[in-house]
């Protein structure tokens, strides 16, 4: 995607050929700042503190982190130790473990002196795979948006509600849930996006609205609790979200608040679609509610908020009374029965074991 007309991926090798560069997402949307990650500890810190976030992107950064670790110590013991360390940074998104496992498998049979190079090559392949996967997700989702547009009166846009950020900044490029929207916009389809703010970290307000605006896609920021109201009044044609993990039976783990959007969509007859790459499938898990670990983040994310002050400076302010305890589950699970369907790089399917098996027989 482009920033001020210049195309970017969200992670790329630095000029030294070993370090990687990312955008510090904690600084968006107030400033666009690149940062260099020079070793596995800096990669782990960036993932843990959400300087990089989004399931596909943290997988890619984790893969490069493992490659950087092998430059220092190419032993199998270090490979396994660093893979475990990186995997612990974000437990809910399965893409991270998938990427780390893929790097481990790619380097094990190489002699020590070749392992780092093999790891870098595999990390680059993971990035290229993510870009092509997301492009294809966009194509299949675009077909869905065109079908909706064909049923609408002339001159009315396709109105999409999305939650959290599943755009290019959450992946290596294109995004998952936003990829169909970008492709619709770029082909001239009239589309408007309702952007949930996505408390408590406000990924919708800070990231989705920022990147949609940078690309010229019409959008409106709304409070998280406005989605049901918009659906009741016929102002939402489709809910389109990303995901951090999809189970064998089609349950979906996504940013906290997604489940409530699915309930409202079901009550109002609004289709609820989930966009995902193959790396987000976890066929080892059947019952998402019982088996997917839900990350519990610091309560300060709920009690405090960061924003720009009138003088242009960025500051964090307290929202709640001192001493107020806060719980902060970062994700929830939407049962497959509430999901209209899944959009993957191989096409669309129902959120069920049979639907996923039809598209991914090798995984089933």
Topology at a glance:
Layout: E1 2-3, E2 6-7, E3 11-13, E4 20-23, E5 34-37, H1 40-48, H2 55-72, H3 76-87, H4 94-107, H5 112-151, E6 158-162, H6 179-186, E7 191-196, H7 203-215, E8 219-222, H8 227-232, E9 238-241, E10 245-247, E11 252-255, H9 258-268, E12 272-275, E13 281-282, H10 288-291, H11 300-303, E14 304-308, E15 314-318, E16 331-334, E17 341-344, E18 347-349, H12 353-359
Parallel strand pairs: 6-7, 6-9, 7-8, 9-12, 10-13, 12-17
Antiparallel strand pairs: 1-2, 3-4, 4-5, 10-11, 11-16, 14-15, 17-18
Helix pairs in contact: 1-2, 2-3, 2-4, 2-5, 3-4, 4-5, 5-6
Largest sheet: 7 strands, mixed
Uncertain regions spanning at least 5 consecutive residues: none
**Radius of gyration of CA atoms, rounded to a whole number:** 20 Å
Strand order of the largest sheet: 8-7-6-9-12-17-18
Which CATH class of the largest domain? Alpha Beta
Overall average pLDDT: 96
Task: Supply the CATH architecture of the largest domain.
Answer: 3-Layer(aba) Sandwich
Counted by DSSP, the helix tally is: 12
> Can you tell me the overall shape?
globular
Q: How many structural domains can be distinguished in the coordinates?
A: 2
- Number of extended strands: 18
The name of the CATH topology of the largest domain is Rossmann fold
Give the CATH superfamily of the largest domain.
Answer: Translation initiation factor eif-2b, domain 2
Describe the structure concisely for a colleague.
The protein is α/β, with parallel strands linked by helices and 364 residues long.
């Amino acid at each position: 995607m482009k920033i001020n007309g210049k195309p970017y991926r969200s992670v790329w090798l630095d000029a030294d050929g070993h370090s990687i560069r990312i955008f510090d997402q904690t600084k968006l949307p107030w400033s666009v700042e690149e940062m260099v990650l020079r070793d596995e500890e800096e990669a782990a810190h960036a993932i843990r503190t959400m300087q990089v976030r989004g399931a596909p992107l943290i997988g890619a950064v984790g893969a490069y982190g493992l490659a950087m670790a092998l430059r220092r110590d190419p032993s199998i013991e270090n490979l396994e130790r660093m893979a475990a360390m990186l995997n612990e940074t974000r437990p809910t998104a399965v893409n991270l473990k998938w990427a780390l496992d893929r790097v481990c498998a790619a380097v094990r049979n190489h002699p020590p002196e070749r392992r780092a190079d093999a790891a870098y090559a595999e990390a680059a392949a993971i990035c290229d795979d993510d870009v092509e996967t997301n492009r294809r997700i966009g194509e299949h989702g675009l077909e869905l948006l065109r079908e909706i547009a064909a049923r609408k009166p002339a001159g009315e846009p396709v109105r999409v509600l999305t939650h959290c950020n599943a755009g290019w900044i959450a992946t290596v490029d294109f995004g998952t849930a936003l990829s169909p929207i970008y492709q619709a916009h770029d082909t001239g389809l009239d589309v408007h996006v309702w952007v949930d703010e996505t408390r408590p970290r406000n990924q919708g307000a800070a990231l989705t609205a920022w990147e949609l605006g940078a690309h010229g896609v019409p959008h409106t920021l709304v409070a998280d609790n406005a989605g049901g109201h918009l659906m009741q009044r016929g102002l939402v044609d489709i809910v389109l979200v990303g995901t951090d993990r999809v189970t064998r039976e089609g349950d979906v783990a996504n940013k906290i608040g997604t489940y409530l959007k699915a309930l409202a969509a079901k009550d109002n007859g609004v289709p609820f679609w989930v966009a995902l790459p193959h790396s987000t499938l976890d066929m080892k898990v059947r019952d998402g509610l019982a088996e997917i670990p839900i990350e519990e983040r610091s309560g300060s994310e709920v009690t405090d908020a960061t924003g720009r002050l009138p003088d242009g400076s960025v500051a964090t302010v307290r929202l709640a009374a001192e001493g107020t305890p806060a719980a902060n589950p970062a994700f929830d699970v939407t049962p497959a029965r509430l999901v209209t369907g899944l959009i993957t790089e191989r096409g669309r399917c129902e959120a069920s074991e049979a639907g996923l098996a039809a598209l991914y027989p090798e995984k089933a």
